[in-house]
Structures are given as structure tokens and as C-alpha cells.
């Protein structure tokens, strides 16, 4: 079976905006308080933003023969039902007005699509997983291909 693996990295534009914010913090601190204070504030901001972006963007979605992993969660493929790729308005609605509060979400607002994966375990109160992805069709295909699901 062909697997699937994707890191949900934050977009480059976020890093550019963060760099501009750090530079701005340096200027507004260094002008009245001096370069040392400016570098201290900007350095702290740079470290905090980097950690935040690397942690938030470090979520991995992976499908192998036995499991689906999304972020920190993992589920055996035997409990997976239908995988539906979502794009555009369908993806936005799935994470918004159409979202079941019991669903497991891996939301990344900067990603254009998602996959909704139904769960078949009668003992699991979670009706489905909704996973943000760059490639909804590929992820859904990986979940469907040689599927062990009982739908």
C-alpha cells in the first residue's frame, strides 16, 4: 500500500510577517531604551514566534497500512469509514457551521482543503475526523486505497 505523509507547515508569508514584527519591536524598543533592550525584546519575540510556528506547523498527517495519524492523535484504519475530500466553501463550512462539536479536528486556517473521515467504531463518541490538508484528494485516496475500513 502506498502511504501518505504531510507536514502542515505554516506558510512562508507568516515567517515574513513575523520577521517584520520582530524588526518593528526592535525599533520601537531600541529608539527610546537603547540597542541592548531592543535586541533583548526582539530576540525574545523571535524565539517565541519561532517556537510557536514550529510547534503549530509541526503537525504531521500520515497514513500507513495500519494507522491514520493526525497531529498527536492516531487511530487504527479498521475504525475508518468513508474519506471525503473537501475544498473551497465545503472545507470552510465543514470547519465552521457544519462542524459537529464531537468531531476531532486538525484545523490549519492557511490550508485550502480538508478530508472528512467517518469513524465506524460504535464505542467512539467521535463521529468523524476532519483534517486540514494541502492535498485533500491525495489524502482521501490514500485512506481509500486498499482500505481495511468497514463502512
Structural class: alpha+beta
Binned, the helix content reads: 40-55%
Distance between the termini: 19 Å
The main sheet comes to: 4 strands, antiparallel
The gyration radius over C-alpha positions equals: 20 Å
Number of strands: 8
Shape: elongated
Query: With helices defined by DSSP (H or I, 4 residues minimum), what is the helix count?
Result: 4
Strand content: 25-35%
Low-confidence stretches: none
Integer count of domains: 2
Main sheet strand line-up: 1-2-3-4
Name the average pLDDT.
92
The ordered H/E elements are: EHHEEEEHEEEH
What's the arrangement of secondary structure elements?
Elements: E1 4-7, H1 12-33, H2 35-56, E2 60-63, E3 67-70, E4 73-76, E5 80-87, H3 88-95, E6 104-106, E7 113-119, E8 128-133, H4 136-144
Parallel strand pairs: 6-8
Antiparallel strand pairs: 1-2, 2-3, 3-4, 5-7, 7-8
Description of the structure:
This protein is an alpha+beta fold and 151 residues long. It folds into 2 domains: 4-56; 65-144, no CATH class. It contains 4 helices and 8 strands, in the order βααββββαβββα. Strands 1-2-3-4 form a 4-stranded antiparallel sheet, covered by helices on one side. The radius of gyration is 20 Å and the shape is elongated. The two termini are 19 Å apart. Keywords: Membrane, Transmembrane, Transmembrane helix. The chain crosses the membrane at residues 12-30, 36-54. InterPro entries: DUF3093. This is DUF3093 domain-containing protein.
